[in-house]
Amino acid sequence: MRTLYIVCALCVAVVALLFEEGLLPVDFLGLTIEVAYVFDLLCVALTFGGVFVALRLFKFKVVQRQLDAEDTDKAFAAYRTWNTLRISMIFFPMFWNLIVYYGSGFNQSAMYCLLITVIGALFCWPTSKP
Known about the structure:
- The protein has 5 helices and no strands.
- It is an all-alpha fold.
- The N and C termini lie close together (11 Å).
- It has a domain at 53-130.
């Protein structure tokens, strides 16, 4: 699980580096005001929804019952499944915010949402035990 987390973080970092070094174009989306507003709303909704659910995922009763199973093999299988979903819920909004930030010419909302997802990702480091 830690490998998946690190690979996702490195992918986001490499894409950001490619944008910063000029190897990928900036402001390539060419958004109108209305579409920029929709993208801002999507950034905020994905960020707060994804980060909140990812941070609280293991506290949901359905998930907690699966993680507390008496059979350790089933518990670890459930942990791998739910942790993969958790990592996806953190890194998809992060990647989306990164693309919107650079694609719209340094959109401030996307930048702040990107910062929130990066901070949220720090609290989703996978452990070796469920």
